Amino acid sequence: MQLANKPIVWLDVETTGLSPTTHEMLEFAAIKEWQGQISTLTIKIKPQHIELAHPKALEVNGYTEAAWADALMPFQAAIMIRDFLAGCTAVAHNAKFDSGFVAALLERAGFGDRQPTHWICTQTIAQERLFPYGLKSKSLKNVCKFLDIPEENPVHRAFEGAFRCRAVYYKMQKISWWQRFCWWINNR
User: Fold this and answer.
1) For the whole prediction, is pTM greater than 0.85?
2) Across 165-184, average pLDDT
3) Cα–Cα distance between 89 and 30 in angstroms, integer?
4) What is the biggest distance separating any 2 CA atoms in the chain, rounded to whole angstroms?
5) Cβ within 8 Å of residue 27, ≥6 positions away
């Protein structure tokens, strides 16, 4: 799949909280498609200020010191992420959230905001294409359920999020008029 003759990358991040200015990225995963080839990148990132983490965020992504013992330092992760995303169109579910954390990591590493300039948000596409047919919440979990895509595990992992984002994107691209009609009938 390519958009505007660029590779497309589906990605997800796990973080220590909701604010990219206060919290840190703990995990990054991406699936890149380009000219019939698929490549992936999954990185755990060692937090530098775990004391600022929100406990619920750590619970959601299963963070423990032991599980992150071999995680990369943020600068090393930033180099790998910058290089993997170079020249790509990025797709994320809630792209504003993911792009904010990618930008913050790259800026803290001294690379400025060297991330993709084009982002596609599957949450926005879901709102446009699925809300008229009965979808009530645009969370990834609810969109997957609506589209019959297997649910994510209770402990969130970035690769699972990227994989589901890709599945949601493709499934929404292939919604037929018949499927829309069936949804419309079922929600009358």
Assistant:
1) yes
2) 87
3) 12
4) 54
5) 13, 14, 42, 43, 44, 45, 61, 157, 158
